[in-house]
Amino acid sequence: MTLITRPGFVCVLLAAAMAMIPAAAFAQMVTANSLPWDAMDSTPETVKQVVRWKTLVGRDVSAKPELLFGELEIAPFGVYPGHKHPSPEVYYVISGRIRWTLGDETFMAEAGSTIFTPPGTVHRMENLGEDIARAVWMW
User: Fold this and answer.
1) What percent of the chain has pLDDT over 90?
2) Per-residue pLDDT at 129 exceeds 70
């Protein structure tokens, strides 16, 4: 498990990730409120009722984007079932108390927590609060 809560770490991490993007990549500015929430046909309806995500960077790139960045919301007491990605993923919790399972370890993540998920690692989130839990993600 990699849980990092040092101030400023996310800025350093994002700067490092941005350095990996080729200079030919296009500049982009988006406003989250102007974009729809993402939907995948393969996502079960029970998950769609409690979890939603929005891709802010990388959503309109026809070729495979070098970087994806977005936001995630989990409804009060909602569960985002275990899943995995082929790429490493980083989450930064903005609000809420989330019981996070990363591989075989489970821990609490709160506002200010940064979670690094290695490629192919199953991860699961459960919002333990009465308010929506929010995080941003990058992979």
Assistant:
1) 52
2) yes
SS3 (DSSP) at 53: strand
29: which residues sit within 8 A by CB, 6+ positions away? none
Q: Encode pLDDT of 3-14 as tens digits.
A: 555 455 554 455
Angstrom distance (rounded) from CA 135 to CA 3: 14
pLDDT of 23 above 70: no
The residues, any chain, with a CB within 8 Å of residue 41's CB and separated by 6 or more, are: none
Closest CA to 58 of 67, 50, 48: 67
**Reduced to 3 states, what is the DSSP secondary structure of residue 85?**
coil
Tell which residue, 40, 35, 80, 74, has the closest CA to residue 58. 35
CA 52: distance to chain centroid?
11
* pLDDT band at 43; cut points 50, 70, 90: confident
Report the distance separating Cα 73 and Cα 88, nearest Å.
Answer: 20
User: Which pLDDT score is estimated for 58?
Assistant: 81
For residue 111, give the amino acid letter. A
Output the six-digit token pair for 105: 């370890």
Cβ–Cβ < 8 Å for 72, 51? yes
